[in-house]
Records
---
Amino acid sequence: MRRPPHSGADSPDRISDVWGPRTPYAAGPDWPERVDLFLRDEVTASDVERWVPSACLLCSNGCGVDIAVKDGRIVGVRGRATDRVNRGRLGPKGLYGWQGQLRDRLTTPLVRRNGSLQPASWDEAMQVVADRSRALLDDKGPLSHAFYTSGQLMLEEYYTLAVIGKAGIGTPHMDGNTRLCTATAAAALKESFGADGQPGCYTDLDTCDAVFHYGHNVADTQTVLWARMLDRLAGPNPPEHVSVDPRATEVSRASTVHLPVRPGTNQALVNGLLREVMVRGWVDQKYVERHTVGFDRLEETVRDYTPARVAEICDVAARDLEAAAEIFGTRDRVVSTVLQGFYQSHQATAASVGVNNLHLLRGMLGRPGAGVLQMNGQPTAQNNRECGADGDLPGFRNWNNEQHVQQLADLWDVDPLVIPHWAEPTHAMQIFRYVEQGSIGFLWVAGTNPAVSLPDLDHVRRILAQDSVFLVVSDAYETETTQFADVVLPAALWGEKTGTYTNADRTVHLSEQAVRPPGQARSDLDIWVDYARRMGFEDRSGRPVPRWDTPEDAFEAWRECSRGRPCDYSAMTYDKLRDSAGIQWPCTDQAPDGTERLYTDHSFPTRDDDCETYGHDLATGAAVTAVEHRAWRYDGRARLTGTAWTPPPENPDGTYPLQLNTGRIVYHFHTRTKTGRARELADAAPDAWVELAPQDAAEHDINDGDLVRVESVRGHIDVRARCTGTKPGTVFVPFHYGDIDQENTGHGRRRAANELTSTTWDPVSKQPTFKSGAVRVRALPDDEPEHTDSADTSATGPRQG
Amino acid sequence: MHLATYIGLLETGCDTLAASYRQVAAGHASEADVVTLCTTFAAQCDDHKESLGPFRRQYGSHPAGEPERLHADGLATTRTGGLGLLRDLHDLYLLAAYLDMAWTLAGQAAKGDRNADLDTTVTANAAVTEAQIKWLSTRMKAAAPQALLVAD
């Protein structure tokens, strides 16, 4: 064990001890508290002037945290012992990542003049933005405008932008990078249950008998949630775990059954599990009869997925599939979690719906310990979805339901025709396609870095570099994306502004401003309100759109917008959230303390006048019409739908013989804008790498630590090799690394995983299929005398050599 | 007995639609979803044609001298740009709708002839063609405002 060199004497070490010491517990009682604290440099707890309640913004878990303030600066963090999400714990990113906010910040607006970005005043910069926007709206209309945002802004900011976009401008071209991480969670929930909304909750893990991880390496992606699972494993009557993941991970090592499926075969696996549950008599017939529609068509769909056939498609042992099915079919309380292994594959929504189907067949929803967690990738992805900054209508309303549109028109006092609702909103990849074609001439990117995070980066760079688009970027740092911008606006970050956000189990936290933003940086809320005022957006009564300009007023407006919808915040206030342990929506007059789990009455929002969507053909994404939906008479019963497995669009061949898999690692978040600037995290994982199965490495004459070129038909990266436990025939590349900050490595090699990935997406959720594609590898001559490498303790698996 | 005429028409319709899907997939290579789904749909059309083999043998083939005007023309080329994509998808929609009705009419004849095998086959194929039409409709409806109002 090595301590991070910069941590205080009393601080835990979450670099080498990622999940911290065990606090074992049995099924039933509350998860014990364990408080993690980290103070910077020589600061001690007695030096701290104020502790400001907040929640972590560096993964979708949303751990409660207190921000330590001294001399007007953030000096540390402490997990909140009372918080329902983490009971005091923090993971590596939560404990150290905030330090990335203390350096390299953008502090003044920048405007491109004579080809280079020059400092400007806010007034100058915003007027340039407003003038260009107005000219384009007058010339080409609202469809010339697009907004591409984040999963890390706050509810108030998303809702404000949604209102500006839908009631002010009237464009359907709004999406977030949530399209890359969480769109399938939303899509799968909408398809099965009629509306978005996490059915289960984290406390289900306290009582369950088994946990299924579908493409979810929770040990790396939500470390504190894994700590909760580890504590159950260390206690009496621990649950069994089942892991579906091509890689060997901490989760798979702790699992009773590990199914290392071939990438691109999730749908076959899920169909096989469904069939086993059906033919081995584990269906809760009464539940299915009363609370679902579509059993017969689903039975027909999965009929041919025998264990032998699935084993062949997925390259797993038939007996392991049967063992996994038996655990699912015979335990009373099972929690299933689903994430990017499913969401970033080509049949993403269908496979994730398959997991919902498994729970519906066994009636395992709406009771303690039996639930589905369609996970989110980012901390505020849920808010982007519910507020409509991802293009959906706010409050999980149905664009295809005129009554829902009228509700919004009444709320915003605008003509319903202003609100775009002739089709589904334009998804991110289509927005960039319209930019490429020149029909979108104004693109505002906020809090995200598409020049690293979108697939096929060479293509993305060409699009962003086009003269035909006016690119506004609001960010806290110079990034690979700001380099293409016409105007860069310096944004305030976590702790520097006030707002609320909602984690993957519907827990809402309030995070109040603890310190001032650096320089002239402003919150995204302030920036968008300034834009709206300059544009002069008005409602039918001549009032400004939006009518608010503070976070709390935005939240009040959102409470009204959400009233009566599944994501009901109507009884939630800033006062109630202050010092709370986190409150889960729906929070109403009938449930003033929030709602732990959904669907306890087994009534689902599938009624024609209530549902968020009428659904889709899972194979093609074709929309189900209102008339077709009515004919099915779902009437509050869940929809059982499915589809056959199809091979992924790009498969290994003689030229590109290996399958690509990309993903997250424990020490970093997204494109590392924050975590790459926190020294503990940067030192722990300074550079990208490629994981190869030992036999594949040997076949290509590659040794651990060798410099390797990984190449697809679209591009290449040059990274160091790790010969580990990934599935033979596949390679894994972490997706965090871009090219702009290579100070830790000293080389100038291409290293972004998305140089390799392809522009394809799931037909329903439109989530890009990052976990696919064919590549080849070869060792490169190594003229770098020394190289840094990641911590040996990475959770991704033991290294050889 | 003109069922052979319609079986021939279905076979040609499958060929024409498959070729047109492939034409659109190749001509709009930058539209990722169009490429993926049109390629899949083309393969489905190939399978549908294959499925008609037993019935061609049973009922005979397309009679000699049948006028070509019975057939819908496929797409000879693809157009470019947003409007071009919309027009090409619209053409695919018309071809698929033509085939869809041909399945229906052949199915009617199958029922009249008490041929359960043919009825089952054309009913299954019709469902797939209808799914293609629904996707084309969904995609066109989403694309139309941009193509008709803003695109160059």
Note: Residues 86 and 142 of chain B are 10 Å apart (CA to CA).
---
Amino acid sequence: MQRAFPWHLIFFLAPAVIIYTAFSAYPLLDTLRLSFFTDSETGERSFAGLANFVTLLGDSVWSEPFWNAMWNNTQFFLIHLLVQNPIGLGLAALLSLKGLRGARTYRTLIFLPTLLSVVIIGFIWQLILSPLWGVSENFLYALGLGEYFDAWLGRESSALITLSLISVWQFIGIPMMLIYASLLSIPDELLEAAKVDGASPFRIFWRIKVPLILPTLGLVTILTFVGNFNTFELVYAVKGALAGPDFSTDIMGTFFYRTFFGYQSQLGSATMGATVATLMFLVILLGVMAYFYFIQRRLTRYQL
Amino acid sequence: MTTSYRYPDKARMGLVHLALLGYTLIALFPIVLVIINSFKSRAAIFNDPLSLPDTDSFTLIGYTKVLQESDILLYFGNSLLVTVIPLFLVLLFGAMAAWALSEYRFRGSRLLVLFLAMGIMVPIRLGTVSILETMVGLNLVNTHMALILVYTAMGLPLAIFILTEFIGQVPNELKEAARCDGISEIRLFFQIILPLVRPAVATVAVFTMVPMWNDLWFPLILAPGDATKTIQLGVQQFIGQYATDWNSVLAALSLAVLPILVLYVFFSQQLISGLTSGAVK
């Protein structure tokens, strides 16, 4: 017997699949394709093979800013990895303690900055760190550390680190929440048993809880990686498209933006922009693949 | 478990509270500082930034200036429009697709799931060059429609992924009983399934909404015109222009924070229970 054509299937799937394909999946593939083309001055588009990649990675006018942005972005990510995730883990560990009163209030308040727009957060911190206003300077003086104050956002040596820490401050809520949820899912019997055996809270944390939440830590790492290599707003809001001083805060997002739209005397180029986007795609793909092949596969999934 | 602590436990709990309280202060201080100073005169902002506004220093001059010299209310409206409409579309189309993927077996369904899952991991921004060319081709640059379409595409993959898990938990007997009554598949979904997964839809709504409201990238590229400017872009440009007028800057920042603060007061429990129960594997 021939079944009726599944019209209802089309009805349910078509809107989502069409919009997603037209405005997300296709543009991505088309961008990868565009990276192999070049526009002439009259606006005609022609196939150029790997020429864009050769220019971007081989011509020092392009390759120096590219590697600068890539290295800055790597530092940006490493600071998140080494500061945001450990503090997030620590906060989650404290919040998940049995019998802690007010845990709900703490986590609600600590999560708040994560929801605010990066642009606004960038401006707020710019004001707070401004030597003009002096809020942070006076604060350091009150602690007896006044001489260490500097216009951190304005110095080439410290601007990137400062921006990274602002971003850490804002997004700490995400690792905290994910790890917190994962800690709560550890069965009580397991922890009680360890307690009965005389294990100290620290031992229980490092030997039982941390190994059990490793998959979540892996997930947090890859989410941080993808988010960091795709961000743009904070640097753009605080430092503008030129990511000063002297490109010391330039990351892939701002480099992509400048390449696509141009700045000062350099004209924007859609195909060079697509080439930068393609390389960003490859970096993110490598990160995601590394996560799936090395981390996800080696971690033992504990059945809880 | 006993509710009274032994003495060392009590001291330990005190330290835990101290640490959490300390971090909560760090998290809130910058936001509170900006809001309280937005109500103070310029002299008070600089002389005594940490004090609350009093009868001497209280002023609304920053707010009146922002409202007079920028179209901030229009920008709010634009942001609302390009957040609420895509949100509705993501939830509706996302739930429909999630239902189809979890309920029906068909050829290529696994491939389709993989295709949609790609959108969770690969940021939509990487396709910007082509998105802009498409929008130019469709004559949609500087329209709300451009942002609505892009945000809908951006929100769908994660929404489908989370909703599929929830819809998969609806008991089979319920569906079979409805089908025995001769109900069509489409009515089954809208009248029985959708009301059942409403709590999950609410969670997905918060996840979907925040990135759209806070986005700067696509408004900057697809709709930078005055008529379609969103609040993020509007505030960013306003502050660039009035950088030395501290009253206005602080007021603009406070106004931009306000809607999220208000929403958070009402929906924080929903959001956080969603974060800590769903989507975590």
Note: Residues 1-5 of chain B have pLDDT under 50 and may be disordered.
